[in-house]
Amino acid sequence: ACFLDSMATLGLAAYGYGIRYEYGIFNQKIRDGWQVEEADDWLRHGNPWEKARPEYMLPVHFYGRVEHSASGAKWIDTQVVLALPYDTPVPGYMNNTVNTMRLWSARAPNDFNLRDFNVGDYIQAVLDRNLAENISRVLYPNDNFFEGKELRLKQEYFVVAATLQDIIRRFKASKFGSTDSVRTVFDSFPEQVAIQLNDTHPAMAIPELMRIFVDIEKLPWDKAWDITKRTFAYTNHTVLPEALERWPVDLVEKLLPRHLQIIYEINQRHLDHIASLFPNDTDRLRRMSLIEEGDTKRINMAHLCIVGSHAVNGVAKIHSEIVKTQVFEDFAALEPEKFQNKTNGITPRRWLLLCNPGLAELIAEKIGEDYVRDLSQLTKLHKFVDDDLFIREVAKVKQENKVKFAQYLEKEYKVKINPSSMFDVHVKRIHEYKRQLMNCLHIITMYNRIRRDPAKLFVPRTVIIGGKAAPGYHMAKMIIKLINAVAQVVNNDPMVGSKLKVIFLENYRVSLAEKVIPATDLSEQISTAGTEASGTGNMKFMLNGALTIGTMDGANVEMAEEAGEENLFIFGMRVEDVTELDKKGYNAQLYYDRLPELKQAVDQIKSGFFSPKDPNLFSDVVNMLFHHDRFKVFADYEAYVKCQEKVSELYLNSKAWTKMVIRNIAAAGKFSSDRTIKEYARDIWHVEPSDLKIPPPNEPRDAGQDKTPNGTAA
């Protein structure tokens, strides 16, 4: 969404393509402390922003078989599903540019199941239309986890096949695609079309474009492959091995038989090339193959994307470095120039103006309104870091946002919170690598300290944790239950009173992020170093006047670089330390034995202090922490707790805290998605952003003026 907003604001002729899911990510309900999923029937009351475009409906083929003849390969006896596009306008910021997001909905053809044998059962045939239309029924809710289901592969090919037909139709209709006798129709394709693969989910676009060029347009293989590679670029979004897509060959052969043949041919030529450069290095061939041998042969979709693209990028400096030197090191050794970095960004229109008008206005009073289109101008705020009036105003806006959010919480969740307490917020998908458990151990530690010495000064905190767990992710669901169990104890202990409150924020989603982020004092970004590719929540909090406690991971590294490490609360192992600990072997028991407060907290979870009715409720969690914690929660616990003490200490000095906030906001300019998209446009798509303001429809146009300043579409 941020990228679409920036592309329109920068005047790029760009389209966002995807699936129009009937049901989006589930709504999360918390019942008795457990996550319960409910269907998100978001279209129930209609969607006024979309326009169905049946005139552009396209066929998508599945199953069938391949026939080879002198004239080439033919994919026949297929099942057809229709792709119906729905267009949503994407307006640029105050520049009269409106781009399009086109989402495909699956429709059965009218003769579905009525062509063939079951002439008799008309009713059943009509009911069976649902089978085809199920393709766009529901979004798979996994985060950072690959689930190799046939319906998911159908979804991936569905969006790819419809989109490529659409792109080629538009290309052929343009002046560039028109046939003349001098040159092949598709010679200028990569100059006119750039396709960015958002992770490996649309990877089937590579063999699909080859199929169109070779089987349908009758281009020679080498020419088709050259055009294909120059058209595609691939963005990698994760390094977790369980998240990488590896589709079973058998499934692809059944669903997309021609595509499997094309993938085999791509792989053969790729491996022949490697073998010519590294003779007799069979291990390298095995490592770099698109096909993984094993119990079940699988296609490594990331390898397909790298081989089929002219550019590969990670989404933060540290992530792109890991992609180059660890995950895909063999490929990077071969073509180092192919690998780039494009640090993620967020749109300041939604994540400042829309969600935090008070702060946006205050900034505009000091530096003017131009920063909204050029966020680097926030550096001008540095000269107000010692301005007492500005410091007070920034603190006042934050306090107003906190009061407003506290009122919302009271109304929606019937919980009363102290708006002068520090709002300590940890909102993101629930996952072991994001270490919500470490936050939980810190909460228990604070609770134990308050009870041990009730008279001692304690900086009051409201700890807010929110996020959805994938429905099949047992450990993530146990983590939610644990947080709620701890909240139950802490929030009802009279010794604690208003010093510490714990809230699990139900059904965390964009609309709720827009409320909680402007009200946050402390942003928790505490993933194990080397696991969070970038993160973007971290940037949203920084722009909205929160301070960050975090590890040197993802974009946190660059946030510290921009603001100065002394203006973030950085703690814990770096990537090198994690690697070192892996070599040596991580032993959780050591930390448990050495740190009394950690031992106390873990023992409380283990003994049923937080689950008296079922003392063994959290045994799976405790067992994981001791015996198979890939993300080393105990190894960073001590540094985390010490760092949190520094946070509390600074919070006592409101003026010093707010000055640090201002330094952070002033350094947030780099993290605009406008900057990110300019880099994609310059380094990958080779298009020029345009700041031409298109005249509004009510003003006469210069007759000679071309509608798009750049013919090139991304």
TrEMBL record:
One GO MF term attached to the UniProt entry: pyridoxal phosphate binding
GO biological process, alphabetically ordered: glycogen catabolic process
Cofactor dependency: pyridoxal 5'-phosphate
Region (Disordered): 688-714
SUPFAM superfamilies membership: UDP-Glycosyltransferase/glycogen phosphorylase
Reaction(s) catalysed by this chain's protein: [(1->4)-alpha-D-glucosyl](n) + phosphate = [(1->4)-alpha-D-glucosyl](n-1) + alpha-D-glucose 1-phosphate
EC number(s) given by UniProt: 2.4.1.1
UniProt xrefs under PROSITE patterns: PHOSPHORYLASE
Domain of life where this protein originates: Eukaryota
Listed GO CC annotations: cytoplasm
The keyword Transferase appears for this protein: yes
Modified residues (N6-(pyridoxal phosphate)lysine): 540
Keyword Phosphoprotein in record: yes
Transmembrane segments: none
Keywords noted in UniProt: Allosteric enzyme, Carbohydrate metabolism, Glycogen metabolism, Glycosyltransferase, Phosphoprotein, Pyridoxal phosphate, Transferase
InterPro entries on file: Glycg_phsphrylas (IPR011833), Glyco_trans_35 (IPR000811), Pyridoxal_P_attach_site (IPR035090)
Family note: Belongs to the glycogen phosphorylase family.
Entry function: Allosteric enzyme that catalyzes the rate-limiting step in glycogen catabolism, the phosphorolytic cleavage of glycogen to produce glucose-1-phosphate, and plays a central role in maintaining cellular and organismal glucose homeostasis.
Self-association and partners: Homodimer; enzymatically active. Interacts with PPP1R3B; recruits the phosphatase PP1 which dephosphorylates and inactivates PYGL/glycogen phosphorylase.
Protein name: Alpha-1,4 glucan phosphorylase
Gene (UniProt): Pygl
